[in-house]
Amino acid sequence: MSDLPDLSAQLRRHRNSGRTAVRCGNEAVSYRTLDAHADAWAAWLRERTRPGDRVATLCRSSIEQIALLYGCARAGRVLMPLSYRLRPQELAALIDDATPALLLHDEGHTDLAAGTLRRCVHQPVRLPLVLPRGAAAVSGDVDPGAAVLLIHTSGSSGRPRGVPLNHRMCVATGEALDGVAALVPEDVVVQLLPQYHVGGWTVLPLLALARGATLVVEPEFDADRALRQLAAATLTMAVPTMYRMMADSTAFGAVDLPSLRLAICGGAALPGQLARIWWERGVPLCQGYGLTEAGPNVLCVPPAGVEASAGWTGVPYPGVEVALAGVSAGPGTGELLVRGPGVFAGYWGGPPHQGWLHTGDLAERDARGWYRIVGRLDDGYVSGGENVAPAEVERALRAHPAVVDATVVGVPDERWGEVGVAFVVARSAVDGEGLRAWCRERLAGFKVPARVSVVESLPTTGLGKVRRDVLREMAREAI
Hints:
Blueprint: H1 7-12, E1 20-24, E2 27-30, H2 31-48, E3 54-58, H3 63-75, E4 78-81, H4 88-98, E5 102-105, H5 110-117, E6 125-128, E7 147-152, E8 162-166, H6 167-181, E9 188-191, H7 199-202, H8 205-210, E10 214-217, H9 223-230, E11 235-238, H10 240-248, E12 262-265, H11 272-280, E13 285-290, E14 297-300, E15 315-316, E16 321-324, E17 332-339, E18 357-365, E19 371-376, E20 381-383, E21 386-388, H12 390-398, E22 403-413, E23 417-426, H13 432-440, E24 451-454, H14 468-477
Parallel strand pairs: 1-10, 3-4, 3-5, 5-6, 9-10, 9-11, 11-12, 12-13, 23-24
Antiparallel strand pairs: 1-2, 7-8, 13-14, 14-15, 16-17, 17-18, 18-19, 20-21, 22-23
Helix pairs in contact: 2-3, 4-5, 9-10
């Protein structure tokens, strides 16, 4: 474990390195400048807020929001980045729950910020996200156990929940990741995930700045621009939707990726076909698994094993403990449990968490000790007395040459109790009955979906995570 337990000290030790810390668009700052900006924000926050106050933001990914995070870290405040993809009423619910003292926004989200506050009971002070001028440098002790980030879960299956991340969690999850990534100051890390997502901070970006590397920030994801950035990158992380969009880009075959030694995929299952497209380009694209409550880094495929990894999420990161509920050792299937210094201490406003974190994800472990996620406990359904894991049915559907993506949900049925309904995105003409016949050749009868609907797209969150709650409602309405 690092001897620098707080984020503030990790940044400050590179102040005199002379290196570029962050690039974003046409803007770049050195470590000295970024550190000075963090000091300015810390002084400004101490004048206007109290220790422990939340500082909400509505903005694209930016250098200034990174400086603000480190300013919060030094002042004992908590950065609460909000998703600009949410509607005002959704944002208002998060603000009323966490009661931030400030709501800072960039120029592009002025109207969204104002519209949100019109729906709020709690009224934070609304200001532009602009570097404070004339603020004096600050000093003082930092509590490594104090929260520094408040990240909200995606709410893909229900209401978003706030997860406080403290300094120790952020450092610990970075150290775990570095057991695989092995970052050095010469590395160039491209951040493709938005900063309202936990991966926009604790999957590579904060680790890059802790190691003195250069971080390249994309304000918003654009496949062609991202590929150009990756041409000079050594590490990156994205979700399957982003990797798919880059692979589908006309620029994909033309861009050389000579230095990209690690590309992590998280947020959802990595289809084997998509992984092979990148492997053929010489890019070691490998599946990872995590959740906001664990910081998020939990499982990863070792870089040396990527070509045997399709469908698997690998082994625990160094320093992370995992187990399967009800399975003592060896191969088996059960709820994935996680324990370690990167695990949270409880949801915002909720009871303290201790011991093993119950992820709610159903995982399988093989004889190698590798894991793969086979579904959510609350996604499964019982058809005719038999348990069905949607992920298994989805894998069978995705194996069809015409299928791009598939999601299966369970809905009530008078005869069987519950049945599966599949929603499929296809690249060429295919019909539902043909896909059901495909499944019958590969799955037990009770696992075959009762209906298959071919759709243009699946409803997703801003990061491409499928909204199963929306699909369940669609399936019920079609009964």
